[in-house]
């Protein structure tokens, strides 16, 4: 794929493409982005959750040279790091580690012990949002695994969007897929996934902020349980 810097698409173009690609396979949506702006203009944000392991397979099929990064809060489950390593081995791909320079010890000194229990918004800002903001400055577009059915805040997600927060093209190739479609893809391709998904963890974040869900509970009920928080601040799809 060409590495030439191309003109940034207008909001009108993005809206039109979002309509045209609504029913397209996620791979076609990724292909559009990488051809439109060049692969080096894009990066894929991988959390190693099940949507993202499917997307690892898809983005690498379109172009193995694409940058894939993960936000390392230093607070992930061991199973999440193991999933990263299994994917790295399977695809022979190095995942870029993006993290704050603030160690957990420094954070505890400055903000008190276990900030996540008292003010998860500040903790997420320090350990996720700020490092992400800094990292994304290198790119013109990013790819994410968010889907409409994941949360009310994501119910209007389009497959192609202009991301106002970061000033980037945002591709959400799985926006219209349901969880069954994603799992079918994973099983068909035999893609490594986080074993916690088989232990009632449909959505996996940091260890202190994630619990398993009970039968009948919302899939994201295990994230920041007991608080009103449902997003870490990375995805600002507005409620319409
Ligand atoms: S998910 Fe929890 S531990 Fe992780 S950064 Fe956010 S508040 Fe901190």
TrEMBL record:
GO CC annotations, alphabetized? cytoplasm
Q: How is the cofactor bound?
A: Binds 1 [4Fe-4S] cluster per subunit.
Question: What are the entry keywords?
Answer: Cytoplasm, Iron, Iron-sulfur, Metal-binding, Oxidoreductase
Phosphoadenosine phosphosulphate reductase domain residues are: 44-212
| Enzyme active site | 232 (nucleophile)
Q: Which cofactor does it need?
A: [4Fe-4S] cluster
Stated role: Catalyzes the formation of sulfite from adenosine 5'-phosphosulfate (APS) using thioredoxin as an electron donor.
Which family is this protein grouped under? Belongs to the PAPS reductase family. CysH subfamily.
PANTHER family in the cross-refs: PHOSPHOADENOSINE PHOSPHOSULFATE REDUCTASE
Q: What is this protein called?
A: Adenosine 5'-phosphosulfate reductase
Its lineage reads:
Bacteria, Bacillati, Bacillota, Bacilli, Bacillales
